[in-house]
Specification:
It is a single chain. By secondary structure, this protein is α/β, with parallel strands linked by helices. Helix content is 29%, strand content 23%. It has three helices and four strands; from the N terminus they run αβαββαβ.
Amino acid sequence: PEQLKEIMQEVFDGKRVLELGCGPGFNLKVLKDLGANVSGVEVRRELIGGVPDVDIRHGDAEDLGHIFGDERFDLIHFTGSVL
């Protein structure tokens, strides 16, 4: 519903969001459409690039400092599975 979309836009608009285990970036695309500045990290290189116009970097979530340097995020979202 439109009211829910408006509420979600208020929550995410302008926020820096990082998704760990983002796969091809489907969730990132939704959050980007709500106004968030999105980034993702994915360990499986073959999944990266499935969704255009989202920043997905290859690497292990345990090494975020190496992957993102001193970048800061307002929200970190985890959707991957632990193998």
